[in-house]
Amino acid sequence: MNICKRITICLIALSLFVLPVSASPIRIKDLVEFDGVRGNDLVGYGLVVGLNGTGDGIRNAPFTEEIMSNILERLGVNITGEQFRPKNVAAVFVTASLPPFARTGGQIDVTVSAIGDAKSLLGGTLVMTPLNAADGQIYAVAQGTIIAGGASAEGVAAGVVQGVPTSGVIPSGARVEREIEFEFASLDTLRLALREPDFTTAGRIEEAINKTYGRPVAIMLDSGTVRISVDAANARSAAHAVGRIENILVEPERKARVVVDQRSGTIVMGQEVRISRVAVSQGNLTLRVEEVPLALQPNPFAAGETIVLPRTNASIEEEPGTGLAEVPSGTSLSEVIAGLNALGVSPRDMIDILKSIKAAGALHAEFVVR
């Protein structure tokens, strides 16, 4: 049985068991971002103490000595003219995300990362560090014991490191000191920003919201925005309107897309991907050059030298591939992949075949290669 017949049988057999599956309804809160409901990034520069000799080398990280001097002077310790070379301190960057509507006194998680030549932050304690937003204002203060995500050990001639011991987290390690000034309840209109802009999905969200209220409350502005009138919804506030609409189920429309990861050979595709009528031929060509020198010895008791004659064996081998297989029009990509898998095509070769099909204009989907 030739390759073309085999792949056709595989595709026909597969079509008997694969049924079209419609997209599952998704909550609106999982499809959109509500205008004004967002977090804010915070960053700070601090000092970690209590390390077991794995801190920064002061000569290689002079900024560590500077911040340590500033902290000691604020605490009333005069170190002017003093020289100290501790190995249990490290300069770090502290990052966090201030969640929406965070209130004064609330606690948030922080991430601590070494910026000098410290070998490990295991067992260290972050000294009180202010966290600033993009406007330069302090919104939180971080302090606490670091939980590092790695381990390290070192001997005289060798060492071993597992994970990343120079980075860690402090759960609930920062306390909110300033609130973001934003009155969400006073909004007259709400804008819903789709995470995956699509006119069909935006239209379905508009229709679902208006159907829930029984009157025109929402209007689609573009493929990525739906506007809702709080007054038309007769809601007491914008928060009440969001609470009513965020759990409405909508069936999203996804763009046909194929994502390929060349490093791992992973291929991910959507059910909307289709392939036009195309013929595929794939095979491997192997060139081999082997040196087999021949040594000639002189006769016994004869004067002479050993002579080495060069001898080269060169060959070209073409491994059998998938042959010339014709794919009928309208075939889904999942069926083609299943057929190629049945023929024993490797993931690497499968990626090359998909690239060629896309270059031929027969793959009707967005092709993303990573």
Structure description:
The protein has 3 domains: 3-21 and 257-294 and 310-369, no CATH class; 40-176, no CATH class; 183-250. With 370 residues, it is an alpha+beta fold. It is flat and about 115 Å long. The relative contact order is 0.14. It has a 6-stranded antiparallel β-barrel with strand order 3-4-5-9-7-6. A 4-stranded antiparallel beta sheet has the order 2-10-12-11, covered by helices on one side. Residues 1-22 have low confidence and may be disordered. The chain has helices at residues 3-17, 62-74, 199-213, 238-245, 333-342, 347-359; strands at residues 26-27, 32-34, 40-49, 89-98, 107-114, 125-132, 138-145, 147-154, 159-176, 189-194, 218-222, 225-229, 249-250, 257-261, 266-269, 274-275, 278-291, 294-296, 307-309, 312-327, 331-332, 363-364, 366-369. Helix 1 packs across helix 5 (333-342). The longest helix has 15 residues, at 3-17.
Question: In terms of topology, how is this protein built?
Answer:
Layout: H1 3-17, E1 26-27, E2 32-34, E3 40-49, H2 62-74, E4 89-98, E5 107-114, E6 125-132, E7 138-145, E8 147-154, E9 159-176, E10 189-194, H3 199-213, E11 218-222, E12 225-229, H4 238-245, E13 249-250, E14 257-261, E15 266-269, E16 274-275, E17 278-291, E18 294-296, E19 307-309, E20 312-327, E21 331-332, H5 333-342, H6 347-359, E22 363-364, E23 366-369
Parallel strand pairs: 14-23
Antiparallel strand pairs: 1-13, 2-10, 3-4, 3-6, 4-5, 5-9, 6-7, 7-9, 8-9, 10-12, 11-12, 14-15, 16-21, 16-22, 17-20, 18-19
